[in-house]
Design a protein that fits this description.
The chain has about 270 residues and is an alpha/beta fold. It is about 35% helix and about 20% strand. The chain binds flavin mononucleotide.
């Protein structure tokens, strides 16, 4: 979530790197406030899925990504935004409830926005926000979702680049320890995000403009939108430790494939 827009070459390199490591489909996500059109074109040519988030659906961007052969979706915060995404050419939508970790687009709970969106569009709908258990996955699929999106739980995957102290804090937290805040606004103002309350408090009491350093030398400003990774040093606990209400389900570090296996509802597991 570093709001440092990637160039077309960087996107191509990144997708190429991922291709060498998996034969599965690869997706690239763009945040609208930081979007670079040439990078979207490159993603559409090289990735299987291109996603956009955090801005009004833009048919020209959808077309740019589709031209290269990718399927395209928009993560949305309301049924009306979902309709705009579909009208703009998206193949599917992700509906995000306010339970989600990270930046939050709308102001409705997931169940409500899912219901309204299923009534409003014909394309597949993916449910996101606060999902951490197989029961919740089963509930959402039964309610009509075609798939689910999970974020916070994977921050504690073995493969994750999250800073170990951030992961520790997630393991020790419950949903009551999260808050929707505007605090981590340095590069991305006016964009509410769900984060650990303790991180907001620590950032507010920190004195100074620079809270840490990224390997390579970049100084991390206080209230940076960048979550703490293994590549950062400094006041990690005063950085943007994004966490959804799904943090309740973060109890240990595991390989991503084991997390996926755990989340598959019993009834749909193949032997
Ligand atoms: C650490 C973290 C980083 C995220 N970064 C992005 C991002 O860069 N782009 C994006 O579209 N969504 C991002 N999200 C939001 C997810 O797309 C999704 O809506 C959210 O994780 C779902 O809620 P959950 O975290 O409770 O599973 C991020 C979420 C987290 C927790």
């Amino acid at each position: 979530m570093i709001p440092n827009p990637m160039s077309a070459d960087e996107v191509e390199d990144l997708v190429g790197h991922a291709r060498r490591r998996t034969s599965k489909p690869i997706g690239v996500g763009f945040l609208i406030p930081f979007v670079v059109r040439e990078a979207v074109e490159a993603a559409g040519r090289t990735a299987d899925v291109v996603e956009f988030f955090y801005g009004d659906p833009d048919p020209t961007l959808v077309e740019l990504a589709r031209r290269g052969g990718a399927i395209v979706d928009w993560q949305v915060g309301s049924a009306s935004e979902a309709v705009a995404a579909v009208t703009g050419g998206c193949d599917f939508v992700v509906v995000q409830g306010v339970e989600a970790g990270g930046h939050i687009r709308g102001n409705q709970l997931l169940d409500e926005i899912l219901r309204e969106t299923l009534d409003a569009v014909e394309v597949p709908v993916v449910a996101a926000g606060g999902i951490g258990t197989p029961d919740r996955v089963a509930q959402l699929l039964a309610a009509g979702a075609d798939a689910v999106r999970i974020g916070t739980r994977f921050v504690a995957a073995e493969e994750s680049d999250a800073h170990p102290r951030y992961v520790e804090k997630l393991i020790g937290a419950t949903r009551k320890d999260t808050i929707i805040s505007g605090a981590f606004r340095a590069e991305w103002p006016d964009a509410p995000h769900r984060v650990l309350k303790a991180a907001v408090e620590a950032a507010e009491t920190f004195e100074g403009d620079v809270i840490g350093n990224l390997r390579g030398g970049w100084e991390v400003p206080r209230f940076s939108s960048m979550p703490p990774t293994r590549h950062v040093e400094g006041e990690v606990l005063a950085m943007a430790m994004y966490a959804g209400e799904s943090v309740d389900a973060v109890k240990n570090v595991k390989p991503a494939k084991d997390i996926v296996a755990e989340l598959i509802p019993q009834a749909t597991r193949s032997s």
